[in-house]
Amino acid sequence: MLKPKDWLLLVILPFLAAIAIDQATKFFAFRIVNPVDFGPVSFFFFANEGFALGSLKELNKIFTVVLPSSLGGLLLFALLVTQYFLPIYSPLMRSGISLLTGSMISNVLDRIARGYVVDFIQIHAGMWQTGVFNVADALQWVGLSLGLVAWIANGKLLYPVEQRRGRKWIDAGFQTQYCLKLLAAGVCFGLISGAVSYTYVTLLVDEIQSLPRGAAENLVRTFLAIYAGVSAAFFVGLFVTGVHMSHQIVGPVRAFENFLNDFINGKRRQFKLRKSDEFKELEALADNFLKNFADTKGISTTPLVAGDVAPDISGIRSDGTEFNEKDLHGRKAWLIFYRYATCPLCALHLDSLREVIARALERQVAVVAVYESSPEEFEKANCGATSDMLRAAGIPMIADKERKLYRAFKTRRRNLAAFTPKTVKALKKAARKKFRQRAIKGRFGQLPSHFLIDEDGIIVEAFYGKSFVDHIDLDVVRGFIG
């Protein structure tokens, strides 16, 4: 995004300078009575009623005066939009675009004020000669050349890969409303100016008695056609501009939303926006959030790894009694994070651990299961299978409804993890064992995790599942148990 100083130096000043220089030279062109030659360059006044270098002057004035004059507003609109959305600083390109547009506008001002463009320069060499042109025409080539040089030098930076978003329509509802509101404002202005212009033209035609009725009606119809065409082009440009502007507004908001979701799901990363995005202050806010919230509150989202000190293991058992570190008695521990009490996939996995759990308890290794459920949930009939297996295995179950342990151990969530072939196969197997899905009383996307902790409270192995049925390799557990 350009700073106000850059807008002044790179956009406004070149634009105004092109108009001022061109109009100043045309002021002196009016005073040329006889042609003046300076070598191959001649200066003489020429009223150009056509287009470039005097071409197409035989066309109706509606096409040589009215239409080009009407397009002046579109040129100014295009200048502002292009400068606003240009993704790189590039003084050459920005100055070139402003010079090009300013010189074109200067010629448009001629047509509006006089009905023709003032040309006064011609270059010749022997039998060869150019058409008659003015300083604005020369500045157009200068501006075009500057833009071309900048494009050759910085073309790859115009739309760098790392600055792209996958699509323009990020939030279709918001962006459509934004574009329609912008378009509605433009349409209202078009209707008002159209009504005034149409009324003025019809009254003016009526006042001109010399025009035949058919010619007068044809003049009005031509005006309406030109006005409708120019307005339509403006409305299309306005809508496209709305798409780009809304993209730069909703894009940072959606990116920040994704940043927070990643943080919640255990993925810590730096938050960066595109250079052309609005709300750049969100980057500083994200950095401040990570430093002053995540770190000082002990909510670092970096996953736990082997060698880390295990967080304090405490909570409420399924029977309502307290569980804390003292219950481990300085033993090795195998901490299992399941989903919620009624999860059939969790019950299926717990059922498959009978032999390993028995071996762990025999070797004095503590096994603790954590569920995102309240103690009351385990008293209900639909949790009978899970409760019975826990009691039969002789291992404690921590009812972590408030998710304190889930957060402390940086467990993860991923809703799409449900839709894998292995998950569907496991659900069918669970159904055959009468482990059926009941009411979901927890985070549906919670993924399983396993932590093997030594006698000193140091994590030996940290495993984060990538799907609902992704669990630690039991050979790793057996090696830990000994």
Task: Return the CATH topology of the largest domain.
Answer: Glutaredoxin
Query: Could you give a short account of the major beta sheet?
Result: 5 strands, mixed
Beta-strand fraction estimate: 5-15%
Number of helices: 13
Would you count the extended β strands for me? 11
Structural write-up:
- The chain has 482 residues and is of the alpha+beta class.
- It folds into three domains: 159 residues, no CATH class; 138 residues, no CATH class; 167 residues, Glutaredoxin (3-Layer(aba) Sandwich).
- The protein contains 13 helices and eleven strands.
- The strands form three sheets. A five-stranded mixed beta sheet has the order 9-8-7-10-11. It has a four-stranded antiparallel beta sheet with strand order 1-2-3-4.
- A hairpin with a 2-residue loop joins β3 and β4.
- α1 crosses α3 and α2 runs parallel beside α6.
- The protein is elongated, with a radius of gyration of 38 Å.
- About 1% of the residues have low confidence.
